[in-house]
Design brief:
This protein is 41% helix and 16% strand. It has 386 residues and is α/β, with parallel strands linked by helices. A seven-stranded parallel sheet has the order 3-2-1-4-5-6-7, with helices on both faces. The protein has a six-stranded parallel sheet with strand order 10-9-8-11-12-13, with helices on both faces. β9, α8 and β10 form a beta-alpha-beta unit. The longest helix is centred in the first third of the chain and has 25 residues, at 77-101. The chain is globular and about 65 Å long. The two termini are 16 Å apart. 47% of the residues are buried. Residues 195-355 form the Glycosyl transferase family domain.
Length: 386
């Protein structure tokens, strides 16, 4: 009987969000009879609950830190200094752990973990490294350049979740595009839910626009609030649910979002939820008002459940919506408001676009197919190392 291949998967956050959900779907499909899987998480938090209940060894090591430099993290002076200060500690902690575990393959769930790739190769050049590219790197950024350069030097194979993110990396043609995917057993149009209407005590005739992302400038949260105020004044049955509120909302941007929405009975703020299929199924339209290009997992999930999306015409987002068929792509705030009015007032159009979205999702976002492509990369690298 062949011995199991030792795989170390490294995740960069403890929060709920798209990246941990994507990783959890991959863990659903991995063959635990072939691979001995260890999952290293460098932060504690509610996102780790998505990984439990599987035959893997969960390791938590908070002495390793991500190195930020993407459009999702943004960049400011303090963050850049933090990157530099924690890099040596992260390298030493990762090297110590890898030397103890001696995996045959390390899978980084983000390019922000390139220091772990450096540590792995310093232990043994035979250790293969796969890196998931989940967000495009910042342009004209020294931090982004560092990530790009060191990933190029220490990563054996890249897996990008969209074409735009892939284009921000430097590679040796050792990259493939594998869109984030869903399990259709969990996300499908047969799911019926009224949970948002029940929790918020909304009339049955309400039209619910759902935003499912962090509250951040790059995600356009404040712009959506401003538009929601204008639209709800015109359409009394329009309601906007924004799920992505941090507990304590200590950062300045989130505080401005909360203040801007305060007192408006048509705008509802709530934390990230673990019952994502239910809250998507209970909405009518998904809204993705990103101001910076990056992947939007919520569009994939909404499409699988049969909900149309309205999203900004930016890299990542515009690969997930077929404009005029599965939803709308907008270029200006006026277009965003216009498309919200069109979809919010036309039930037959919502149903038609929702049906087309399911067909598109089945062709592009089936986790059985996507995960198999990742495991094919594993097998290719592990065969090379023999």
């Amino acid at each position: 009987m062949n011995q199991k291949k030792r795989i170390l998967i490294v995740h960069h956050s403890g929060n709920l969000g798209g990246a941990p959900r994507s990783l959890s779907f991959l863990l659903d499909k991995i063959d635990y009879l072939r691979y001995e899987v260890e999952l290293l998480c460098i932060k504690r938090g509610p996102g780790l609950n998505l990984f439990r209940g599987r035959p893997l060894n969960l390791i938590i090591n908070e002495r390793i830190f991500p190195f930020h430099g993407s459009t999702v993290s943004g960049m400011h002076f303090k963050l850049f200094i933090k990157n530099l200060l924690y890099a040596p500690q992260s390298f030493l902690a990762a090297r110590k752990l890898i030397k103890l575990r001696m995996p045959e393959l390390v899978h980084l769930n983000s390019s922000s973990l390139f220091i772990v790739a450096m540590a792995a190769k310093s232990v043994s050049i035979k250790i293969k490294v796969v890196c998931h590219i989940r967000e495009p790197l910042l342009r004209r950024s020294f931090a982004g350049w560092l990530i790009k350069t060191f990933c190029y030097l220490y990563v054996d194979e890249f897996i990008a979740i969209d074409k735009f993110a892939a284009a921000s990396m430097k590679t040796r043609n050792n990259i493939k595009i594998v869109y984030n995917a869903v399990n259709f057993e969990e996300y499908n149009p047969d799911i019926k839910s009224k949970i948002l209407r029940q929790e918020l005590r909304l009339p049955a005739a309400s039209i619910i626009f759902l935003y499912l992302a962090r509250f951040s400038e790059s995600n356009g949260t404040l712009q959506l609030i401003q538009m929601a105020k204008a639209l709800s004044g015109k359409y009394n049955h329009f309601h906007f649910v924004l799920a992505g509120l941090k507990s304590g909302h200590s950062d300045g941007y989130t505080s401005r979002v909360v203040q801007s929405a305060f007192g408006n009975p048509h705008i509802h703020l709530m934390p990230f939820r673990e019952d994502v299929p239910s809250i998507i199924a209970s909405c009518d339209i998904l809204v993705v008002p990103f101001t910076e290009p990056h992947f939007a997992r919520s569009i994939v999930e909404a499409a699988a459940i049969g909900k149309p999306s309205i999203g900004s015409n930016l890299g990542g987002v515009n690969e997930l919506i077929v404009n005029g068929e599965t939803g709308f792509l907008y270029d200006t705030p006026d277009e965003l408001q216009q498309y919200c009015e069109i979809l919010g007032t036309d039930e037959s159009l919502r149903l038609r676009m929702g049906t087309d979205a399911v067909l598109f999702a089945k062709r592009n976002f089936d986790n059985r197919i996507s995960s198999a492509l990742v495991f094919k990369t594993y097998d290719k690298l592990l065969t090379e190392s023999v």
